Structures
1.
Amino acid sequence: MNDARIAEERIDRLADFARELARAGDDERAREAVRLARRIAERHRCGLPRRFDRFTCDACDSYLLPGRTARVRLQEGSHVVIRCDCGATERYPYRG
Ligand SMILES: [Zn+2]
């Protein structure tokens, strides 16, 4: 198993861990898990997987859990707007 693969697996585990922590209400530790995953991704220049990146706030590194740490709404049927509790918003095409 090469380094990049190991990094991906660590990031995957951190994503699961961050989600569990956010669900449990431990926002600060969830944020630490997000930051650690970002650092690993940077070191390996692989970026966060999209499915994880979309659940993190670029402004405060919070794990975005709809209904708890984030609000989600559809915009004109074609975009999803996620607003973090810190006030930052991210906008994505509905598909992809
Ligand atoms: Zn935020």
Note: The chain is about 45% helix and 20% strand.
2.
Amino acid sequence: MAANGLEIIPSARRMIRSQRDLGYEFAAAVADLIDNSIEAKASTVRVNVDWLGVATTVTIADNGEGMSPEQLREALRFGSERDYDDADLGKFGLGLKTASLSQCLRLTVATRRNPNRADIAAYCWDVEHVEAKNRWEILPVKTTDLPPLALSHLKETTGTVVIWERLDRILGYKYPDGEHARKHLFAVTREMEEHVSMVFHRFLAGEVRGKRLAIYVNENKLVPWDPFARSEKETKALDSNAFPVEGIKGRSAVIVEPFVLPPESKFSSKEAHTRAAGPRKWNMQQGFYIYRADRMIQSGGWCGLRVVDEHRKLSRIAVSFNPKLDEEFEINVPKMRVALPSEIRADIEAWTKPAVKMAEEIYRTKSPSSPPVPPPPAPPPGPGGGTPKPPDDRDFKIPGGGGTSQKSKKRTATAQELDLVADLLIQVADASEVVAVENAIARARMKLEGQF
Ligand SMILES: Nc1ncnc2c1ncn2[C@@H]1O[C@H](COP(=O)(O)OP(=O)(O)OP(=O)(O)O)[C@@H](O)[C@H]1O
Ligand SMILES: [Mg+2]
């Protein structure tokens, strides 16, 4: 007979701190909350970032179904309980808490479920309170204490408002009112806008049946960013394929759709080309775009199947899977990175080869016909002279082609050496190191060409 178990409750004081460090960045944390809004059938999400020095707040308000007070209390539990469907974006019962507390010390959730009456329930997690009491205790929040923005939102509609206060991670503790903190907040807000436009592009463009979504950041409506520039006439969509995987939760197909984007000269406009570059620009955005239930988890990189290479920058591949295959894709709590299941890695590598080859050919054929690159003009004398070329306008030199100056010969030789080192590093890297190694190699290439 089994002995009676002895329950040992984790130390709230120690655990709550560790839950803040699961590796979220600001943009990924906001995206995690938007997942929840989509799941609550919201059609609009409004993200507001209000700079007020130490009193800065981030508010994420949706018009979804909202929660009853009991549901809200359960939602606030670390590891909240509920059943998930195949198409659900949630998985761990953690995101709301861990994503929020990765950015702030106080998380308030206010919600309204009744469409006929503005009954609002609100509670908060306050890290300092938990530490002081050493108990997993949430605090009720009076409606009258809610920020006016949250209150007016929930008077209009059912839905949920998440409020982040005491943003120690974004503002830093030393001078949270200072110019540096303000600039940093502005920069991470821009980054978040780009990230969210990218990861939810299928929802924003109405490509996911029954889940069209509009997202506003500080009242600006986000425009979806399509990694495959499918509205460009010259974008090539190669044959797609479905690879069945026997997952531990059942069989499901992984859809692979390869695209080759046009070179700059074939884009409809310079603006369209610049926008298609993406948040991390052309070189770093090549490779796999992995979608879980239509939400993008990974954007670019080759998952260890190839190295990031200037010549391949026009190839981008959509890989879509169902949450049934979460185990096989090794999804983690921040849902920021996945691994390709080992049983289809070789198939995916083979299936995407033609796209990579085509991208390389386009890259190579455009080069000889391109006019020779003139040397950069000498900067005019005096302060402020010379406008640096925008980084994503410059192409790398192909070994053996292009300029003939001593400097470019030396650079070409070093680029070839880098190729050798890159291959070797990729061969010896562990699976967990590959992405970091690829990124470092890409940065080294950029540095060689003076882009970095
Ligand atoms: N905006 C929202 N509207 C309605 N319900 C919500 C909202 N945000 C969270 N919830 C409820 O709270 C629960 C917990 O959310 P949380 O993000 O912590 O976990 P999850 O979404 O279930 O899983 P994951 O950790 O993978 O995100 C959700 O399952 C959902 O029931
Ligand atoms: Mg969630």
Note: Confidence is low (pLDDT under 50) at residues 369-407.
